[in-house]
Amino acid sequence: MTPGLRLPFSRDAFLDVFGVYNTLLWPVAAALWIATLLALVACLRGRSRDASTFGLLAFLWAWSGIAYHAALFTWINPAAWGFAILFLVEAGLLGWHGIIRAHLHLSPNHGGLWRAVAYGLVAYGLLYPLLTLIGPDEYPYAPTFGVPCPTALVTIGFLLLARPLPLAVTIIPLAWTLVGGSAAFALGMPVDLALVTAGGALVAHLWVTRVRRPQLAS
Questions:
Q1: Cβ contacts of 3 within 8 Å, gap of 6 or more
Q2: What pTM did the predictor assign?
Q3: What are 35-52's pLDDT values in tens digits?
Q4: 56/181 Cα distance (integer angstroms)
Q5: DSSP state of 103
Q6: How far apart are CA 135 and CA 110, in angstroms?
Q7: 105 has which bridge partners?
Q8: How many Å apart are CA 84 and CA 200, to the nearest integer?
Q9: How far apart (Å, rounded) are the C-alpha atoms in residues 17 and 30?
Q10: Long-range Cβ pairs for the range 44-50 (8 Å, 24+)
Q11: Strands (E), the chain
Q12: CA 196 to chain centroid
């Protein structure tokens, strides 16, 4: 653990939570992984459905908030109750903007650089369960899918493809890149370094689309 950074739980306790999650809930995790893969394939083929994709992302955030944070992570970290609420808020925002108001639209062929980064983040999120096993941790004591960090990664990936992109739906994923990204150092989870890249990419994208381009157009 990083010197000077104190957490209310040990690394072993942190991994034990994943052990319970994977043992009890692996069928749901596997189903969510398959659904996300299908959403990515649909985007790559230009056949994405906005409502179903953002509905899936909303479900991922709600699932992470309830099944991981509230039901399991609270065993070792009281702050997980706050995380659970934030994840449910993000689920509500994605559902509101992506399904109810239906003004979040995927543009899978827009912008070569952003498209490459977006697909790369979604692919990394799908590979996340495998990448966590390249190291000292063994299944089931390793994060897989449907947990917070891969959820944030795939969400940011799809948000980079969204036109328009409401600022409201980006705040909590960005905040989690800071919280989850710290695990790369504090808990020895190098796979989570991708969250730092994802957060930087989303900030850059917001700056270009919401600040830079309007200035150039004025």
A1: none
A2: 0.94
A3: 999 999 999 998 889 999
A4: 23
A5: -
A6: 37
A7: 163
A8: 24
A9: 17
A10: 44/108, 44/119, 46/108, 46/109, 48/106, 48/108, 50/98, 50/102, 50/104, 50/105, 50/106
A11: 105-106, 162-163
A12: 12
Residue type, 193: L
pLDDT in tens, 151-208: 999 999 999 999 899 999 999 999 999 999 998 889 999 999 999 999 999 999 999 9
- CA separation for the pair 190, 212 (Å, rounded): 33
Residues 6+ apart with CB under 8 A from 91: 58, 59, 60, 61, 62, 65
Would you tell me how many other CB atoms lie within 10 Å of the CB of residue 34? 12
Tokens of 68: 């991981």
Q: Which of 9-13, 30-34, 68-72, 110-114 has the lowest mean pLDDT?
A: 110-114
Q: Name the amino acid, one letter, at 75.
A: W
